[in-house]
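Structure tokens please, single chain.
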Amino acid sequence: MADIALNNTASRGPALNDKVAVITGGASGIGRSCARRFAGEGARVVLGDINVEAAVEAAAEIESAGGTAYAVRLDAAAPADNVAMIQAALDKYGRVDAVVAAAGLSHAGYVSGEKNARATTGLLDQSVEDWQRVMDVNLTGVMLVNQAAAKAMIDGGIQGTIVNIASVAAKVPLRGGVDYCVSKAGVWMLTKAFALEMADYGIRVNAIGPGFIETPMTARMGADADGEAWMRSMTPMDRLGTTDEIASTALFLSTDQSSYTTGQILFPAGGMFAG
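Here you go.
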């Protein structure tokens, strides 16, 4: 019988050994979990966040566990900040192999009551300034880091990966969150279109559409029993996901395990779209 070569990833060592990963929104939630997970798989991690104190704390946590991490201040909506963050990665570690664009914000909250109940965060009450800030961070911010990182990858001859954090709200409208839904739908299409542009360079661009995940954002939505029940009612697995579960999905899309995958969005959402 011919010998069978087992495809054992454990025998090859950490999945991101010697790679450099840049994580936006790295101070909390999904971004922080991605930073920890990527560092645990051997990556040198640059965390960008507008809350630089929390980003420094997250980097120190990684360093204390034996990883390598560096924190920078990032306003995701500021072009110069994104360029500076990528340059910091190049200056400190010499390359950029992977990006996770996890910075985001929402003004949405759970809306209980009758169908005609109106949330103060609904479109009828929303200011142009609040609308624009959500678009600037959630959509333009993703564009900016995709652009800056891809240029660095191309210049360095790196066939890297980009993972953009979208949401189930890219596919399913949520009452009280028009701005958020529109911004995340934009991230989905940005991912698909940019993947076509980057295919010639061997750079893969994918997205993740998390369901309801245990983060500070969903904590606001589930502040009362009705809010949590509403989220669980939309999730066949009858629980919220964890940020570590999303980090595992991001890791898959950032390694050779997904080497033939680009322009896709994965929905780790507890079965929300199973029916």
